[in-house]
Amino acid sequence: MRRANTPLLLWIAQEVLPHEPALRRWLRGAFPQHQADDVIQESYCRLAELDGFAHIADPRRYLFQTARNVVLAEIRRTRVVRIEAAGTLADIEPALIADELDPERIVSGRGLLGHVEALIGALPDRARAILRLRKLDGLSQREIAERMGVTETIVENDLARSLRTVLAGLSEDERAELPTRQRMKHGRTPLRRRH
Predict the structure, then answer these.
(1) Which single residue of 84, 151, 165, 171 has CA 20 to 30 Å from 57?
(2) List of the chain residues with pLDDT < 50
(3) Structure confidence by residue, pLDDT tens digits, 13-27
(4) What is the CA radius of gyration of the chain?
(5) Distance between CA 29 and CA 25 in Å, rounded?
């Protein structure tokens, strides 16, 4: 059993806990199908397992990112369980298969992917590398900062600017085709929401 890290627990109580109400509201809006209490509890467990916290410049953002990662891990796990439970493709509902294999949808998706790749390709070298490492390779901001020899703030800022640039380069129809967890009021996506 791991010994309690008193400085870490104090830091969580002072710097992280005050953001729980905002996190709870954000989770209910962005991920209504997930139990906010469970996500928050798991987020605190992950924070309590940290070896240190000196590298965390923005505790609020770190908490929100941790919660987001908890939800994404749950979504991935659920998808795997669903596929394993189905057994074979023949066991999956035929309408779902037909929708996924619709030629028009495939062509449309390829066109959108090509446009997004072109927009990413037009980004400055560092911003493009950071975006690929974060979104395609799944590295954390800290891992990217260490790998590229820059600060986490630079990684965070470049990533935010890159995402805004790519989204701004898409038409409304293309943005509507993007896979999202849930559309919010006024057509805004959780990705574009400020918290």
Answers:
(1) 165
(2) 1, 81-101, 181-195
(3) 999 999 999 999 888
(4) 19
(5) 6
